[in-house]
């Protein structure tokens, strides 16, 4: 992949920066910028929040090491294997424990004004939809992609992109319910573990969708 033109970051798409500049996704997450489902937006257009200047973000992006190794392969078959192991397996392993923790925290701290009411149900709904989505990828889309270019591939890719948009909406609701990870001073260990786990899940899901939307799917866009 080519190096990023650091002089013209504002005019670049979020998804392109995320693909080409190692470490940029962490910067985007810190500023609440959607680089996966909203990867088609130009950086300058995406930075609309009061108190956040485009210069702040571009300065942080320019400070990143462009020579740092990427933690994902690009070739379709290797990237699919990476997505399956790093994200599909991880979501299925971690979400049930997050749901259990959320149920416990909501039950034990039911009278606390900052309790994450509704978080367990939101995580449960997300787990069900995400698992159904991953099963479709594993049973249909990824096997087709492993065979190479295919004339019928555009439709399942479009369907997965729509699912990703739905996941993005659900993730925003999850992040609202857990108050962006802000913990009360008296939060117990389970509460702290829950919020740390939700933050990791949110970061993982954003990276997961980004790799599919901005790295894997475009390699089949012309087919």
The structure class reads mainly alpha
Q: Could you state the order of secondary-structure elements as H and E?
A: HHHHHHHH
Summed up, the helix count is 8
Give me the Rg, rounded.
Answer: 19 Å
> Could you tell me how far the N terminus lies from the C terminus, measured between alpha carbons in angstroms?
21 Å
- Which percent band covers the strand fraction? under 5%
Spell out the key features of this protein.
2 domains, mainly alpha, 8 helices, 223 residues, globular
Question: Could you describe the 3D structure shown?
Answer:
- With 223 residues, the chain is mainly α.
- The chain folds into two domains: 6-62; 76-220.
- It is built from eight helices and no strands.
- Helix 1 packs across helix 8.
- The longest helix has 33 residues, at 76-108.
In short:
It contains 8 helices and no strands.
What's the SSE blueprint?
Layout (H helix, E strand, L loop, with lengths): L13 H7 L3 H7 L12 H4 L7 H9 L13 H33 L10 H28 L7 H24 L11 H28 L7
């Amino acid at each position: 992949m080519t190096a990023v033109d650091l002089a013209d970051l504002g005019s670049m798409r979020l998804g392109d920066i995320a693909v080409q500049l190692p470490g940029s996704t962490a910067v985007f997450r810190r500023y609440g910028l959607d680089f996966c489902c909203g990867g088609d937006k130009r950086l300058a257009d995406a930075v609309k929040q009061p108190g956040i200047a485009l210069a702040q973000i571009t300065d942080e992006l320019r400070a990143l090491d462009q020579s740092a190794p990427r933690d994902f392969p690009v070739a379709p078959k290797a990237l699919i294997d990476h997505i399956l192991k790093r994200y599909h397996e991880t979501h299925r392993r971690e979400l049930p424990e997050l749901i259990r923790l959320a149920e416990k925290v909501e039950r034990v701290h039911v009278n606390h004004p900052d309790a994450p009411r509704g978080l367990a149900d939101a995580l449960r709904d997300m787990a069900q939809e995400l698992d159904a989505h991953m099963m479709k990828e594993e049973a249909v889309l990824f096997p087709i992609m492993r065979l190479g270019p295919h004339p019928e591939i555009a439709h399942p890719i479009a369907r997965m992109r729509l699912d990703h948009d739905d996941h993005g909406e659900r993730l925003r609701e999850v992040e609202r319910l857990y108050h962006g990870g802000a913990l009360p001073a008296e939060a117990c260990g389970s509460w702290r573990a829950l919020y740390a786990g939700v933050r990791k899940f949110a970061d993982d899901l954003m990276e997961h969708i980004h790799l599919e939307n901005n790295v894997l799917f475009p390699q089949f866009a012309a087919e």
